[in-house]
Amino acid sequence: ELACGLRSKLRSLWEERELILSEARECAERGEELEALVRDVCKPNEFERYMMFIGDLEKVVSLLLCLSSRLARVQNALSRIDSDTDAEEKQSLNERHKLLSRQREDAKDLKENLDRRERVVSGILAKYLTDQQLQDYRRFVQVKTSLLIEQKDLEEQIRFFEEQLETLEKSII
74 lies in a domain? Predict the structure, then answer.
């Protein structure tokens, strides 16, 4: 019964993932249209700034999400430490926690820098685009970021439920 419930939850998560992937494809199409527009109206160096920002947006957001996810897993492992846990494992988890915390802080700095660059790119685009086009650009950046977050969250949930199902199936055998 529990395994059946886990499989059902996984099916719904897989369906949700397909919807988000479809939305991501639509967003990518809007991004390509926007890229063509920006290429047409901006100077080459301004277009290059735009492209670097858009490329870095995905990288920095993905990095932050990955580090936060890894840090959460290490924190969960640390919370399960008890008197039976060997000292080497405790030390290893503590070191990983410190390292991931530093890396996440560095990634937050990258995100702040990216936010400043976004303001610069917005200023550049404001010179060339109509208010509606500028609004479309801002919506594109927001949707792209949201989709990355939703995808990562969904992948984490799927991984969790797949692990739960695998553990349950092994315990039944």
Answer: no
Q: How many CB atoms lie within 10 A of CB 77?
A: 16
State the sign of the Cα–Cα–Cα–Cα dihedral 113, 114, 115, 116: positive
Q: Are 38 and 125 in contact (CB under 8 A)?
A: yes
User: Does any domain span residue 134?
Assistant: yes
pTM score: 0.82
Burial class (CB in 10 A: 0-12, 13-18, 19+), 91: exposed
Q: Which domain holds residue 11?
A: 1-59+103-172
**Residue range 135-162, pLDDT digits in tens:** 999 999 999 999 999 999 999 899 989 9
User: Residue 2 falls within a domain, yes or no?
Assistant: yes
Q: What stretches of 39-162 adopt beta strand conformation (E)?
A: none
- Total count of domains within the chain: 1
Contact 47, 38 (CB under 8 A): yes
Residue at 1 is within a domain:
yes
Give the confidence band of 80 by pLDDT, cuts at 50, 70, 90: confident
Which tens digit of pLDDT belongs to each residue from 45-68? 999 999 999 999 999 999 999 999
